[in-house]
Amino acid sequence: MLTTRQATLRKFWYSIMPVSMLEDGPRPFRLLGEDIVLFLDAAGKPAALKDRCCHRTAKLSKGWVANGELTCGYHGWVYASDGRVIRIPQLSPDAAVPRHATPAYRCMERGGYAWVALDEPLTPLFDIPEDGAPGWRRIHQFYDRWHTAPLRLMENSFDNAHFAFVHRGTFGDMAQPKPMKYEIAETDYGFAATTVVEVVNPPHAYEVTGCTTPTTTRTMQNHWYMPFSRRMDMTYPSGIRHVIVNCATPIDDGTIQLTQLLYRNDSEADCSTQKLIEWDEAIVNEDREVLESTDPDAILDVSLKLEAHMPSDRPGLIMRRRLLELLAANGESEIRRGM
Ligand code: FES
Ligand SMILES: [Fe+2]
Q1: Residue 63 CA: which ligand 1 atom is closest?
Q2: Pick among 2.60.40.1120, 2.102.10.10, 2.70.210.12, 2.60.40.3090: CATH of 14-117
């Protein structure tokens, strides 16, 4: 699917960057092919505007922020966080500022990230109940640019058949190529998929899993939030929960920004932040190598034909059906591409 061709995708929230990255000034980002600029308003909250000055089109991200106002670096026009021009230094001080503005987008903070919706969102941004809850810690694991499509990343996130192969170097077990089946309950936001997966548990995984047996299990509740976010809540027999929140933010038709937040109900003494980042980084890099080799816009007939024999492909097939229904419901049945 070529994401920039589907206007419906503009009506969802996407994670853009850690709010802390905005402390030094405005930052550019490309979302669904659209250049935007993020900065902090006077209250320290993230704001997003089109990255185009309405005077002579300079990129506002090349300017600077003072007191929550964004100044264009070309002729010094000053913008409020809602996109209005509030000062034009070339005018005499007593002249009224003419009504000019650059488009502003919905922007909010969640999980320490700035999230943006380009058009009026069809659904609210999903909750992260662990964020700020007692007994939980939050780790910003990744903020990486990948050359793949967000749908490829999402279907991979619910595909238990790749563990034995792609993750044979970490937790996958080549001797167990037949995957556990997901129980899937469709919801208005996407679906909730639950399963129990047996994984290898070598000694260097003990701190991560809290278990010291050669193999262990992950009880997984994996939620898909249309179109390109998910939350995977894994519980080990030790009681440790490893909750991953991903957003595969579409940058353009062949590139995504992968955000990964991790929540754990243990402490730094149980398992260090560095260990947890390195652990999931090794796993995610295994996925990255194979996903960057896939086609972002392919029509996957093979998978459709095999559905009856391949229950592990079911989550991805449901995703494609739901996304097609979503696009059709928003008048986009004609221009959709390969899914
Ligand atoms: S182009 Fe921005 S102030 Fe002139
Ligand atoms: Fe994977």
Answers
A1: 2
A2: 2.102.10.10
**Topology annotation, domain 137-328:** Naphthalene 1,2-dioxygenase Alpha Subunit; Chain A, domain 1 (3.90.380)
pLDDT tens profile 151-207: 999 999 999 889 889 998 888 888 878 777 889 999 999 999 999 988 889 999 999
The stretches in the chain having pLDDT less than 50 are: none
For the chain, give every residue range classified as CATH 2.102.10.10: 14-117
DSSP labels for 48-96? Answer: EEESS-TTT---GGGSEEETTEEEPTTT--EE-TTSBEEE-TTS-TTSP
Nearest CA to ligand 1 atom 1: 56
Q: What is the pLDDT of residue 205?
A: 93
Task: Report the separation in Å between the CA atom of 200 and the middle of ligand 2, taken as the mean of its atom positions.
Answer: 15
Which ligand 1 atom is nearest residue 72's CA? Answer: 2
φ/ψ region of 93 (left if φ > 0, alpha if ψ in -120 to 50, else beta) reads: alpha
Name the segment(s) of the chain with CATH classification 3.90.380.10: 137-328
Asked whether 75 lines ligand 1 (CB < 6 A), one says: yes
Q: Where are the alpha helices (DSSP H) in 78-179?
A: 150-157, 163-166
Q: Say if ligand 1 is within 6 A of residue 91 CB.
A: no
Question: pTM, whole model, 2 decimals?
Answer: 0.94
Q: Hey, which of 49, 51, 75, 90 would you mutate to test ligand 1's pocket, going by the most ligand atoms within 8 Å of its Cβ?
A: 75
Question: Is the CB of 248 within 6 Å of ligand 1?
Answer: no
| The dihedral formed by the CA atoms of 246, 25, 83 and 73, expressed in degrees to the nearest 10 | -140
Ligand 1 atom at minimal distance to the Cα of residue 88: 3
